[in-house]
Fold:
Amino acid sequence: MRAPLSNLPIEFANVSVVAGRVIILDRVSLVLAQGPPTVLIGPNGSGKTTLLRVAMGLTAPTGGRVTWAGNPAMPPLRRAIVFQRPTMLRRSVLANLRYALAHAGVPRAQWPARIAELLALVGLTGLEERPARKLSGGELQRLALARALARDPELLFLDEPTASLDPAATKAIEDVVRIVVARGIKVVMSTHDLGEARRLAGEIMLMHRGRVVETGPADAFFTRPQTDEARRFVAGELLI
Amino acid sequence: MACIVMTEDLSAFELVLTLNPALLSIVELSLVVSLSAVLLAAVVGLPLGALMALTRFPGREAAIVLLNALMGLPPVVVGLAVYLALSRSGPLGTLGWLFTPQAMIIAQAILVLPIIAALARQTIEDLWNEYRDELAAMNVGPFDRVATLLWDGRFSLFTALLAGFGRAAAEVGAVMIVGGNIEGFTRTMTTAIALETSKGDLPLAIGLGMVLIAIVIVINALAWAARRGAERYAG
Structure:
């Protein structure tokens, strides 16, 4: 019973973000549309996180224009984000999910079923009463995913969700992402892990020094990169 | 000399253990005045702290420095200011509150307000810096944001209230000036200790001192328990 899509497509037209003398995003133009996962790749400091924040509506561009389905402003009702280092409320796992459901406008009668479903999805069933901030890194990321999904988003941003996780924890997150994608939720995630990009991406956007230097289907990007930066990145060279 | 002190100590213990009515009434008034003052200061100080933490306005930095500085307000100065305000020719003289418990509550509330507001401001601002992005991403409205920050910061805010109570219960200058230390009416533990010591009635002074120290210990035990509770249940 998904409501009609309302956020997509997100369009960036010459979007810049400048902080003091530092150019974080440099005249970026792109379209995020319904479809397979879009993966932003690029070295640290290339602007991936800021691009996600702008698309989420958390950071206002200092230049250019962003629109959500043609609208210049739209509250984040059906989009959600998982930050690289998520912050949980100083409450239990259960209370954190209840909080998200309450602020997503989900009727209270539906909470128990939704919470059970979300916890099962991310593999945290049984940890309801645990203080959220005492979870392990992998568990915390999965709870953050569950909290984001509690908002029943049509669009999910993930900012390097596996950056500091071991392979097992990374696999657990990637498995959830695949399920989310299969449910028709548009995923836009950033990573600097080429392997993860190969495993999950439908579309790749390579960022370097605040600019999107190459965009395209993942297969084409990895087999026939068009730009010098993309060729070097795919070849495993250090892009600085 | 040692023998005299021993005798006086025993008398002081006796006063406490037998629940001497004079001593009890002084303790009761002290608690009522200080708790009322903390309640009044909290009603004003917590929202003031939240406001200063969450809003940006010209001169905010200076206001924070001033608020922090006011934590060290000398009680006698506050007492003098409240005395002038409540004295017959003062702006609030018509209330007739000078030398009443109400005047003592107001003086202590003024003394405690900066402590509660400044500590609340710091607590809420730290929490806000941590929660800001997540709450914005969840589209949490302004009122709910404040409620969330107050609830999640409740253990630290409780500690701020306890610090305020500690300050109120221990001060003597302000209540002495605006209360007048009237027996059975405005005499608190601290003013009684000062008076009885000067009169040479050491057993009562020592008995009150023991009760005051016991209260301070209980306050600190509560603060410690609150902290432990925060760590255990909230992470």
User: Anything to note?
Assistant: Residues 101-137 of chain B form the longest helix (37 residues).
